[in-house]
Amino acid sequence: MNILITNDDGVYSPGILELAEVASEFGDVRIVAPDVEQSSMGHAITATRPLSYRKTKIGDFNAYRVNGTPADCVSLGCFHWEKVDAVLSGINLGPNLGNSMWHSGTLAGAKQAALLGIKGIALSTPTQKQEYDFSHIRPYAREVIRYLLSQEDPKLVNVNFPYKPKGISWTRQSVRQYDGLVKPSEDPMGRKHFWFTVVPLEPAEEGTDRHAIENNLTSLTPLRLDLTDESQLVKLSGMDMFKNRK
User: Fold this and answer.
1) 3-state SS assignment for residue 124
2) Phi/psi at 90 (nearest 5 deg)?
3) In this structure, are strands 53-58 and 167-170 parallel, antiparallel, or unpaired?
4) Whole-angstrom Cα distance, residue 176 to residue 6?
5) Who contacts 97 (Cβ-Cβ below 8 Å, separation ≥6)?
6) Residue 82: what are its φ and ψ, rounded to 5°?
7) What's the whole-model pTM score?
8) SS3 of 24, please?
């Protein structure tokens, strides 16, 4: 099995080496990742300039650092590698839960795989005081990857590990209202700048990814690329809203 590894934290992130080491137990691994951090880049692709890559060494693995986004890396990696069976994106240093799926570069790497007809798995975990100790999640990462790679479906999965997992749960995405918090500040030259973040305004619902993480469960959320609201489509298709339009 050929497994392509990417991320949005950059090719030198400790999370990508951890993921490559675990994934290498299940197949041949190749790392293709951004040369700099691309967090919250979402599913951006580079269309206004050419891409390039350079070979580097990450642990015992051959890796390629790309001057592009996570989605770029997956496309370029799949172009150069004759057959890719799965794309693993992560392990991201920070969770990708609920509404953050919309702007997650980590998830975008897995989504790009799914768009290319390849199984895509995004993996993330919160960090504890910037100490990147993956020993607590390694057994769960191994079990999750083993299972998902052995199954034909689902094709796209978002995985989040709590810092110290106690179990594994299938979940749905938590879609709750968030406060788009803007924090103004100044740089050393006195010029104004702003930090943007989001704060959940409502508690997590049971059965969701956020609820699982809050209860120290590894969250597996099967996703799809089709954003169509099927219930609204059925409802609206039965309404003759445009009968007087000429």
Assistant:
1) strand
2) 140, -150
3) unpaired
4) 29
5) 160, 174, 209, 210, 213, 219
6) -55, -40
7) 0.91
8) coil
pLDDT of residue 195: 83
The rounded mean pLDDT for the chain is 92
C-beta separation of 96 from 104 below 8 A? yes
CA 136 to chain centre: 20
% helix, strand, coil for the chain, step of 5: 25, 30, 45
- Using DSSP's 3-state secondary structure scheme, residue 113 falls into helix
With 0-12 / 13-18 / 19 or more C-beta atoms within 10 angstroms meaning exposed / middle / buried, residue 150 is exposed
pLDDT digits (tens, 9 = 90+) for 93-147: 999 998 889 999 999 999 999 999 999 999 999 986 667 889 999 999 999 999 9
pLDDT of 130 reads 64
Q: In the structure encoding, which two tokens stand for residue 215, read together?
A: 């209860």
- Please provide residue 127's backbone torsions phi and psi, each rounded to the nearest 5 degrees: -105, 155
